[in-house]
Amino acid sequence: MKKLKNIPSVQVLLSTYNGEKYIEKQVKSIINQKNVKVSILIRDDGSTDNTIQKLEVLKCMYPKTIKFYSGENCGYKKSFIDLVHQSSISFDYYAFADQDDYWLSNKLEVAISKIKLRKNKYKLYASTVIISDNNAVPLYKKDISDFVPGFISVMTRVRLAGCTMVFNKELLRLYKEIDFSKKYIKKLPSHDGFLMEMCTAVNGYVFVDDNSYIYHRRLTNSVTGGGNGLRKRIMNEYQRTFKDIFESSSVAEILKNQIPQKISPKNLEFIDKVIEYRSSLMKTFVFATDSSINCGIRVANLETRLKILLRRF
């Protein structure tokens, strides 16, 4: 049998934790992607339900497509970072996946078509999501029409979900170079947020799709924010501003200390502001009123300025 030519290969990185209810449907929706050769690398983050048993069954069903391993519970951020470092460099593209979503069959094909012809060294695709209920019945499509592209926007707030992201081999290589030391790991944003911040910092190509090819379940026990009504949204925003230990200054320090030669002068200038704004009251105030701080959401911009004044950015 002849080997199909020009079919892009994709390694999907999937972290699971107590996901027995939805994992089979999600994995099969990934395997059923059209016009791509898919491999799935799964790390189980210490599940206590039947997730591992379900993964073992799926591995027997698709032995050439699925690889999985188990680890101690460390949280989804560290789990995905471990998946990045365990991933193979032999694929054309890579994607993050959540355990409880459902992918339409052309999700990867569309993503790759949007970035494959670009000549940029680093390339990333991300899109909006179709929010669905627990049964994957679509409720509404999240509006990202006001999204502002660029590094400063992403540092202000990462608005795009990692479960939509598809990126090329060179961006994965760069991610693998990053040393996430204990000094920074607790204060870093999510694995996908850092990927987008890093990609925009090095002037990588980012395609943001207003369309969606994924049903994103919003569950009451979801470990990620958003959804679940106005009260939950207000609590999430309060958490972001006053409670979260994630700091953009940690991202800025990693980028400047580890890959400064790859970052444009304009972005390095903003990184210096992030690193130095705590050094004096005047620098804090000047940075908080910087007109370039804009992610497209007024409330998020105001929260970012408040976090700077509180020296929590």
UniProtKB/TrEMBL annotation:
GO terms for molecular function: hexosyltransferase activity. It comes from the Bacteria. Signal peptide: none annotated. Coiled coil: none annotated. InterPro entries: Glyco_trans_2-like, Nucleotide-diphossugar_trans. It holds the Pfam family Glycos_transf_2. Residues 12-117 form the Glycosyltransferase 2-like domain. PANTHER family: GLYCOSYLTRANSFERASE (PTHR22916), UDP-GLCNAC:BETAGAL BETA-1,3-N-ACETYLGLUCOSAMINYLTRANSFERASE-LIKE PROTEIN 1 (PTHR22916:SF3). This is Glycosyltransferase 2-like domain-containing protein.
